[in-house]
Design brief:
alpha/beta, two-stranded antiparallel ribbon, D-Maltodextrin-Binding Protein, domain 2, about 60 residues
Length: about 60
């Protein structure tokens, strides 16, 4: 089973997107977007789901 890093916690939209895209998967919860990169680099996650835009901030340029 793939382990997918998400920014946030179980029940958030990032988890929903990860499960819709990857199917049944393990979720690695991260406090920050940088935590996604750290989780993959450290081998705790195989991939990540990351927002590139939201309704509050608009484009999240640093995530591109």
């Amino acid at each position: 089973m793939k382990r997918i890093a998400i920014q946030g916690y179980k029940g958030c939209f990032h988890e929903q997107a990860a499960r819709l895209f990857y199917g049944e998967t393990g979720v690695v919860e991260c406090d920050t977007f940088q935590g996604l990169y750290d989780a993959m680099e450290e081998g705790r996650a195989d991939a990540a789901v990351m927002a590139i835009e939201n309704t509050v901030s608009g484009g999240l340029i640093h995530n591109f």
